Each structure stands twice: as structure tokens, then as C-alpha cells.
Amino acid sequence: MYFVLEKYTIAGGTASEIAAGVEAAVSEGRLPPGAALPPVREVAASAGVSPGTAAAAYRLLRERGVIETAGRRGTRVRARPASTFREEIRIEVPPGVRDLAKGNPDPRLLPPLHDALAAAARAHAERPAMYGTGDDEELLALAGQRLRADGVPAAPLAITSGTLDAVERVLTAHLRPGDAIAVEDPGWTALLDLVAVLGLRPVPMRLDDEGPLPEELARALRAGARAVVITARAQNPTGAAVSAARAAELRGLLGEHPEVLLVEDDHGAGFVDLPLHPLAGVTSRWILVRSTAKSLGPDLRLAPVTGDPVTLDRLRGRQRLAAGWVSHLLQHAVAHLWRTNAADPAAVAASYALRRDGLVAALAVRGIPAHGRSGLNVWIPVADESTAITRLLSRGWACAPGARNRLGSPPALRLTISSLDATEIEPLAADLAAALHPAPTGRYG
User: Fold this and answer.
1) Which of 27, 72, 361, 399 is spaced 20 to 30 A from 104 at the CA atom?
2) Distance (Å, whole) CA 186 – CA 231
3) 37-46 contacts: CB < 8 A, separation 24 or more?
4) Residues 303-358: pLDDT tens digits?
5) For residue 264, what are the β-bridge partners?
6) Alpha-carbon distance 158 to 139, whole Å?
7) What contacts 252, CB < 8 A, 6 or more positions away?
8) What is the pLDDT of residues 110-120, one digit of tens each?
């Protein structure tokens, strides 16, 4: 059961086997970037499988980023290696151009670290952390208090090196290559990369300003999704935040599938003023993770995680086999920042909202629909990303192409507002209006 081409053989009797063979040929260089693959019916006929099996193999390869279908050019190996991160879909920013493409917080709104690091150093001098030392008890207690105040069920806690660290360990512990996972579309680039690297099958969920659409979650669950990843607030890139009404609908759907793993990302805690409406606890396997990167600083690679006992045990076990633990110096520093209220979440959220809402409103006046209910970004639907980016560059602004956030949703631009000054909002909106044709309002996909 094989199909012979000039330099490689497509073999296998199942979709997974065929896909694995092609992926191996790409990795080994026997199938170079840009190489054409035979039509589905030819693969099916030569390999002795059904057209449906061959089509499923190609679908797996597309979802893993190995191949692409380019209209009349047929199906080809992607020119960009599958292991290349989506963040590398970027533009070169010429000197003198305002860069609104990076998703960083405003450094002016981050708390100073001098006292926190000094306190951490003193604690280390008095009681150095050694092998076998557990997570910082004060940090765990403070995280637990904050989570319970937001309505998250009381459950075991752990500390990881950021959101992606927690998500990777949990997905690896619960899923296997080929398993379906429901993800937001458009969504967080790092998560989409991780899903591809783990060999999981993404099932995209469209969303609006209130989070994933219920019908999209229902469709993903019917499609066999074994895990669901939902951003509670400050969704990257659209700024969506799950409302109370939407949370009730999503909980109802998830409650009908208690075996599904729920991963809830609440990285917006500390810089978003909208309340959390948690889904945590509605399924038997779940986690909720809170990164401190946007609220306290990206170099504080730390995230408290809570979840059901089995999932947290698996997470800790995999953590012990790899990094072992998160630096106790960082844990002490974050605990000090929280204990002393070094950051003012309300003031930080208000500052971001002023810039974000101001830009969205200025665009609306000019007939340009944009989304940004919370967080650091504004998402602007466009007819063509490349044209819009080029026109904006000529006017002195750089933004991020939406392609790196999208699976099947329409083209868009992502602008990070954290570095904007109030005086720049009107000029930016005017330049956007000159560069863009108004796009339809409504859902993101």
C-alpha cells in the first residue's frame, strides 16, 4: 500500500500512517519545501485505500502545518518548515516607524522590582531553597485567596513557568497525537504552535466579544474534541472576555461532556477590569492558569495553576521530570509584590482601556469596525492583510499580520495599544482609515 514519487514513497493503510509517512519524509529532506503531492484520488488508488482515508491524511498534514493547498497549484509541502513559530510571520519594521506589532505590556505600568527582589534575596539568605523544596507557601496562599475571591472552586495549586508551561504539561499528560482539541480562532499564536508540535488536531471555535460562540463549542464537542482551551479575559488577539451569560451557556455544554479536559487561561488577571466568570470545575478534568507576565512583567516567568487533583498530580509529576521547580527567588518576589500591593490593577486596567477603547471608538467614527473589549490588543478585520500592512507602513505604523493568529477565520490586523500615547490615537485612526476599506462587522470568523 504505497504511492511512489521520484524521491519518496507515500505509504500506509490508515490516515494516520499516511500522514506520518509524509511528515517523516519532510523531516528527513526526502520531500523538500514546495514539492507537489499527488491528488487525493491518485494516492487512494495507488495505496489501496478509500478517497476518504487519503483526504483525512491530507487534512491531518494541513492541520499539523506540513502541507498546504494552493488552488490550481495543488497540494504542496509548505515552504516554511512546520516547526517554524507563527510569531515568525512578521514584517521588518523600518527605522522611524511606530511598532505596534509586539504584544508587550507598557513598562511604565509594571511595578518596580527592587524591593521585591531584595526581599527574595533576604529570604534566600535565611533559608536557601534546595532540591526537594516545595512551592512557596505564601505565594500559594495568596494565589488561592485571589482565585476563590473570583469564584474559582477551591482545588490543589501548583506554580509553573508561565501559562504555556502549564498548558503543555497538562495536554501532554492527558492527550495523544491525533487527538482533537478545541481552540479559539483567531487565537494565541503560542498555543496554536504547541498544538501543532504535539501532533494534536485543532478544531477551531469562532468567537465574538463575549468569548467562544456556544454553537462553535457544541460543534467541536460533537467532532470529538477531547480538550477545550478557552481564554477568560483579554483574549489574544481579539480582546474578547467571557461574559456571565456566555459562561452559563458554555458551562451547560461542557457539563454534558464531563470527560473533556478544560483548560482555562486567565492571564488577564491584574490588568483587566472586567470580572472573571470561571468555567472551572464543570468537567471532571480541568485547570485554570494565571500568568503574571502581563501584570508584573514578562521576565517574571511564573503562573499559579489550580485544577482537579488528578490533573495537578500529573502536572507536578511532569514538572519534576523536567525543570523540577520554578525559581523560589521569583516566587518570593511575586509573593512580595502581591502582599505589598505594588501594582494597582484598577489603575493599570483603566490606562489600557483608555487607549484601547479610544482607538476602537475613533475607528468606529470612520466606519472601520474593530474589536477590543479587554486586554492589550485591537483586532481589525481587513480585506487583505498584505495590502493593509504595506499601506500602514508607508504612513509610519507597523502592526502584526493576523495570519499568525488565524486557522480559518478571515484576514485581520492586530495592533497592540500598550505603547500608544493618547495624542497618537487620532492620527493612527486617520491613517488606518486612509489605508483600509471598511470590513463587515460581527463575528471574528
Assistant:
1) 361
2) 12
3) 37/10, 37/67, 37/74, 37/75, 37/76, 37/77, 38/3, 38/5, 38/10, 39/74, 39/75, 42/3, 43/3, 43/10, 43/18, 46/2, 46/3, 46/4
4) 999 999 999 999 999 999 888 999 999 999 999 999 999 999 999 999 999 999 99
5) 230, 288
6) 10
7) none
8) 999 999 999 99
What distance in Å separates the CA atoms of residue 35 and residue 44, rounded to the nearest whole number?
19
How far is Cα 69 from Cα 300, in angstroms, rounded to an integer? 41
The beta strand positions in 32-135, using DSSP E, are 36-37, 67-69, 75-77, 98-99
Instruction: Tell me if residue 115 falls in helix, strand or coil.
Output: helix
* SS3 call for 316: helix
Residue for grid cell 513559530 = 85
- What is Dmax (Cα atoms) for the chain? 72
- 3-state SS class at 171: helix
* H or E element in which residue 398 lies: strand 397-398
Q: Where are the alpha helices (DSSP H) in 259-402?
A: 293-296, 309-321, 328-339, 345-365, 385-394
Rounded distance between C-alpha atoms, residue 318 and residue 32, angstroms: 35
Q: 406 by DSSP, 3-state: which? A: coil
- Collect all residues with Cβ–Cβ distance below 8 Å to 260 and sequence separation of at least 6: 221, 225, 226, 227, 228, 254, 283, 285
End-to-end CA distance of the chain: 39
